[in-house]
Design a protein that fits this description.
CATH architecture of the largest domain in chain B: 4-Layer Sandwich
Family (chain A): Belongs to the anti-sigma-factor antagonist family.
Structural class of chain A: alpha/beta
Distance between the termini of chain B: 102 Å
Organism (chain A): Roseospirillum parvum
Number of domains of chain A: 1
CATH superfamily of chain A: STAS domain
Strand order of the largest sheet of chain A: 1-2-3-4-5
Radius of gyration of chain A: 12 Å
Helix content of chain B: 25-40%
Largest interface: A-B, 19 and 23 residues
CATH superfamily of the largest domain in chain B: PPM-type phosphatase domain
CATH topology of chain A: Transcription Regulator spoIIAA
Strand content of chain A: 25-35%
Protein name (chain A): Anti-sigma factor antagonist
GO molecular function, one term (chain A): anti-sigma factor antagonist activity
Oligomer: heterodimer
Helix content of chain A: 25-40%
InterPro entries (chain A): Anti-sigma_ant (IPR003658), STAS_dom (IPR002645), STAS_dom_sf (IPR036513)
CATH architecture of chain A: 2-Layer Sandwich
C-alpha cells in the first residue's frame, strides 16, 4: 500500500493506493491521527484502493471519531467500487461524509 | 615456530574462551573471565565490557576488571574511544590517550582517580548489528604499548563475545515467545468456553466457530428464554488477533447479560451499542446480527448492525430472502440509530433455513472446488458460492451440515485467513 499527502489549505488530501489490510492499516491510522494532531482536516482519497478489510475500516473509523472530538472535518472522496462495496454492506455510508471530488471536499480551503 | 607477536601464539586461549562463550548462559560472567585472562596475558592493567542499550543511544559498562570498578558507568553511544569503536565498527588502538581527541569526552579518570595511558577497543558485531565493545587499558611490561597482534587477539575475542550475547538474547526471546504461545492457547481455551455447548440434534438453532489463529474475533451465542423463544446472535469484531478477541469476549458478555431483560432485537442492539461506545477504542467496532426465534409461531425477528446479510433459503438452496444491514456496526456512533434502536425485520421461517455467517465464509477461497462452480479455482466463495454449498449439504442434519461446511471451506493444514462462524436456524416439519 502507498500513502501520500497533498496540502489544500488547512485540508490534507490523503491518497491511499493498493490493499488496506491488517498489515498496512497501522500506517493509515498513524498518518491520519498525525494530521489530526496537527489540527489538519483529512480528506481521504480512496480511488486507488483495491481492497479494504475491517482493520482498514477501523483505522478510518478511529480517525473519524478523533476528528469529531476535535471539531474537525473528515471526509472520504472518490471511493473505489471495491471500498464502496465494503462500506455500503456495513452501512458505514450512514457514518462517513462522502464527496465525489477533492474540490468538493475542500471547499473553503 | 609461532611468532609471539601474532594472535596465533594465543590459539589455546582463543579456543578455550570461544568454546566457553558458545555454551554460556551467563555471557557477562564468561566475557569477564575471558577479559581477565587476556588482561593477564597482555599484562594490561584493566579491562571492561560495554553493551549498547536497546535503542542504541547509550553504552553501559556491564563488567570490568582492574583497580577501579566502573560497572554501571553509562554514557552516550557516540562519546569516548569506546563510542568511536561502536560507531565506526572498527577496532581503536590509542597508544597515548593525550593525543586522542575523543578520550576526554567521557571523563572516567577524573571521577575515579585512575590514570589511563593507552587503550585498545574492539567492537562486538554480529551480522549488521553492533552490540557493544571490549576495552583493555594500560599495557605494562617491557613493551608498554598495545600493538597489532594485541588488537587481532581482542578482535577475535570480541567477535566470540558478540555471538555469546546474541545467542543468549535469542534464547530469551524464544522463551518469551513460548510463554506468549502458552498464554494464547489458554486465552483460546477460555474463549471457546464463551461459546454455547452443542445443542441436541433436534434443537432449531446450531452454530459453529473456527478461529483462524487460535483466538477468534467472531462469536455466536444461542440463549433459550424461559418463555421458549430463542435468542441467537453472531458477531464479528474489526481486526484480528488478541485485541479483537478481547472485544469479542466483552461483547458476548454484554449480549448475554442484556438479552435477558429484552425481547426486541433492535432495542437490544441499541443497548449493546451504548455499552460499546462508552468503552471501545482505536476505532474498533462490532458487526452483529441478533434474532429472536419463536418455535411456536415460527416467527423470526432479526436486526442487523453492519453485518454481512443473513440469507433465508429453501431446502433446495434457492434464496428466498436477504437481510442486509440497515444501520451501521456497533461501537462507532452513540446515535447511530433512532430511539427504537436498529431496524427489525420480521418474517416466518416456514420450511426455510436461515443462515447467519461471518465474512470468513464468503471471503474464503476453499480448495478443491472445481473451476466453473461458484467459489471454484480458488476465487472467493462469495454469496453465490455460499448458496451453492448450502444446497449441496441440505440433506444433512443441522449439526453435521455445519461440520461438513467447515470441512469444505477451511484449507486443511494451512492457516485459514479469517475466522469462520456460521449459524443455521430451521424447524423440523412434522
Amino acid at each position: 500500500m502507498e500513502l501520500s499527502v497533498n496540502d489544500h489549505g488547512n485540508f490534507a488530501v490523503v491518497h491511499l493506493k493498493g490493499d488496506v489490510d491488517l498489515q498496512t492499516s497501522p500506517q493509515v491510522r498513524k498518518g491520519l491521527l498525525g494530521l489530526l494532531e496537527d489540527g489538519r482536516r483529512p480528506v481521504v482519497d480512496l480511488s486507488a484502493v483495491t481492497y479494504i478489510d475491517s482493520s482498514g475500516i477501523a483505522s478510518l473509523v478511529e480517525a473519524y471519531q478523533t476528528a469529531r472530538k476535535k471539531g474537525l472535518s473528515f471526509s472520504l472522496v472518490q471511493v473505489s467500487p471495491a471500498a464502496m462495496r465494503v462500506l455500503q454492506l456495513a452501512r458505514l455510508d450512514k457514518v462517513f461524509t462522502f464527496h465525489d471530488t477533492v474540490e468538493a471536499a475542500t471547499v473553503g480551503a | 615456530m609461532i611468532d609471539a607477536a601474532t594472535p596465533l601464539a594465543h590459539l589455546d586461549l582463543i579456543a578455550q574462551v570461544t568454546a566457553e562463550f558458545a555454551h554460556t548462559r551467563d555471557p557477562k560472567g564468561s566475557i569477564l573471565s575471558g577479559l581477565v585472562r587476556v588482561s593477564r596475558i597482555l599484562e594490561a592493567e584493566a579491562s571492561s565490557l560495554f553493551l549498547l542499550s536497546s535503542d542504541g543511544a547509550f553504552l553501559a559498562c556491564e563488567a570490568c576488571y582492574g583497580p577501579v570498578d566502573i560497572t554501571g558507568l553509562t554514557f552516550p553511544a557516540d562519546k569516548g574511544v569506546v563510542g568511536r569503536a561502536v560507531q565506526t565498527r572498527k577496532a581503536q588502538l590509542v597508544r597515548d590517550t593525550a593525543d586522542d581527541p575523543d578520550f576526554g569526552t567521557v571523563d572516567v579518570d577524573g571521577q575515579t582517580g585512575f590514570v589511563t595511558r593507552s587503550i585498545l577497543v574492539a567492537p562486538m558485531v554480529v551480522g549488521d548489528q553492533v552490540l557493544g565493545a571490549l576495552e583493555i587499558i594500560n599495557k605494562s611490561g617491557p613493551d608498554p604499548l598495545f600493538g597489532p597482534a594485541d588488537q587481532a587477539l581482542l578482535e577475535v575475542m570480541s567477535a566470540a563475545a558478540a555471538l555469546a550475547v546474541h545467542n543468549v538474547e535469542l534464547t530469551e526471546r524464544l522463551v518469551e515467545q513460548e510463554r506468549l504461545t502458552t498464554e494464547l492457547h489458554l486465552a483460546a481455551e477460555i474463549q471457546r468456553k464463551l461459546l454455547p455447548e452443542a445443542a441436541p440434534g433436534d434443537f432449531p438453532v446450531h452454530g459453529v466457530n473456527v478461529p483462524a489463529r487460535g483466538v477468534s474475533g467472531d462469536f455466536f451465542d444461542i440463549i433459550e428464554r424461559p418463555d421458549g423463544r430463542i435468542w441467537f446472535c453472531l458477531g464479528d469484531v474489526s481486526g484480528k488477533g488478541m485485541n479483537a478477541a478481547l472485544l469479542m469476549a466483552k461483547t458476548s458478555a454484554i449480549v448475554r447479560c442484556l438479552c435477558k431483560g429484552e425481547d426486541d432485537p433492535g432495542r437490544l442492539l441499541g443497548q449493546i451499542n451504548h455499552e460499546l461506545c462508552e468503552t471501545a477504542g482505536h476505532g474498533m467496532f462490532v458487526t452483529l446480527v441478533v434474532g429472536l426465534f419463536d418455535p411456536v409461531s415460527g416467527e423470526v425477528a432479526l436486526a442487523n448492525a453492519g453485518h454481512e446479510p443473513p440469507l433465508l433459503v429453501n431446502r433446495g438452496g434457492r434464496l428466498l430472502r436477504e437481510l442486509p444491514a440497515e444501520a451501521p456496526p456497533l461501537g462507532i456512533l452513540e446515535d447511530a440509530a433512532g430511539p427504537e434502536g436498529w431496524p427489525v425485520s420480521r418474517f416466518l421461517l416456514g420450511r426455510g433455513s436461515l443462515y447467519v455467517f461471518s465474512d470468513g465464509l464468503t471471503e474464503a477461497r476453499p480448495p478443491g472446488r472445481p473451476a466453473g462452480k461458484p467459489g471454484g479455482a480458488r476465487e472467493m466463495l462469495g454469496q453465490q458460492g455460499a448458496l451453492a454449498l448450502f444446497a449441496e449439504l441440505a440433506h444433512l442434519d443441522r449439526r453435521t451440515r455445519l461440520m461438513a461446511l467447515v470441512e469444505q471451506v477451511m484449507v486443511r493444514d494451512t492457516p485459514a485467513h479469517d475466522d469462520l462462524t456460521v449459524l443455521v436456524i430451521e424447524q423440523d416439519q412434522p
